[in-house]
Amino acid sequence: MKRLHPTSVLLHASLERSSNAMRSHDIITAVPLSFDQSGGLDLDGSRRILEYVAASGVQGALVLGTTGEFPALSIEERNAVARLSVEILAGVRVIVHVGAASRFEVSQLIRGARDAGATEIAVLTPYYLPATPDEVYDFFREVASEAAGLDVYVYMFEARTGIPVDADLLVRLAELPGVVGVKVSGESLDLISSFRERLPEGFRIYTGADGDFARAGRAGADGVISGVASAFAVPFVAMRDALLADDTGRIATLQTDIDEVVEAVDGSPRACAPSTASPGARSGASACPSPSRTPRCSRVSNAPSLVFTETAASDDGRRTTKELQCCPHTSYPAGERSLRVRC
User: Which is it for the CA torsion 234, 273, 160, 137, positive or negative?
Assistant: First the structure.
């Protein structure tokens, strides 16, 4: 292994810090939606969630993505959510996801996003049925042409779509008119680094891994698209401030906070069924079964704070409950970083 001169080591570290500070470190919230007890879309509840996100200090929102349960919605419902999102999130960027199982549906959703006033869209790769790299390229070439005037983000999520996007294909897609970035979900930071090395500097890369927000910046990403930030925005907003200031000590402290909230709400994507709303609580949360626990997160109606209640089953069948609360409108109290007392 080549041994670097101490001066070279310091220069490398300096360049890494400089590159990290130069990134925009955007927080794009992946917005959940509200559903009623029968499973129908609840636009009033979704409006309150969007209002909460709008006031949380993030740079933008991705609506109708995985967190927004787009496969469970009709074309009409998705276009209605697009209109509502552009209306409520007037002060931040709005990226409307228009991916669907058929090119025909994608066309209707592009039209709906444009009519809603959106200027940015994300498009999932074709899914379920296999597609070659050339077929994926042709799909995005048609989409980019139809979406002329809109900024287009490639949405890659091989674990859910079965369609890989390697660096060779992404470089080709980045050359299409209007294709300005990519959301990378379920992939390693090494892959993001390999993308960054080959893509134009102005081509935006967003990670879908909530916990990797800071690390992804060092790998060359421009920010995170985070479902967890839809409820716990405070540590993410504080982390962005620390990253922009290149405050390494603060970054390390805040990473602990972000790890805690990601674990609390299980930020990894799952196939989740809508939970039953309790009286006075917002519906639209998800009960996500896992082998060891069944967390249930309910958004309480008396915002500005949100209370997340995690219910866990122990080996002896008893159930314990833990509450986490967070306010999007406040910063860390001086000398305090505990999530449980922040509000």
Answer: negative
